Amino acid sequence: IMLHSTLALSLLLIAVTSNLAMAIKKEKRTPQTLSRGWGDEITWVQTYEEGLYQAKKSNKPLMVIHHLEDCQYCQALKKAFAENEEIQEMAQNNFIMLNLMHETTDKNLSPDGQYVPRIMFVDPSLTVRADITGRYSNRLYTYEPQDMMFLIENMKKALRLIQTEL
What we know:
The protein has helices at 2-35, 48-58, 72-83, 85-94, 148-165; strands at 62-66, 96-100, 118-122. The protein is mainly alpha-helical. The radius of gyration is 21 Å and the shape is elongated. The chain starts with a helix and ends with a helix.
């Protein structure tokens, strides 16, 4: 009987341990999928609705990145974005972050068209900031890899607006 219960306990321990290992593995993998390469240390929300809720709750601006997997401009921007320490740090600490590979129903997020890549900011009062734009007049919310300093300035602008307006 002693041997039997020891065996049962061992099997139970093995089952629990392997389940735990699987749970830990899953836990590690989750940010990878949501980050889609934009920054694995960043906490990403899954949907626009979740982003709005978190922005309001935390009083942080929401940064929405629209992109597509097979778009070379998106890939180039993603690389520059992921490699920029200042952007990554601000994104981790001061923003609610969302990257989307599909359009939302919110027309305010495509004021000048549904092109990619585009990066838009939504403040905690849930207003899409049409006043935080990139450098190009034909695609107001697009950024190129060489525009990272410009994006940093716009991130700072989004943070300043919260302090002054809300």
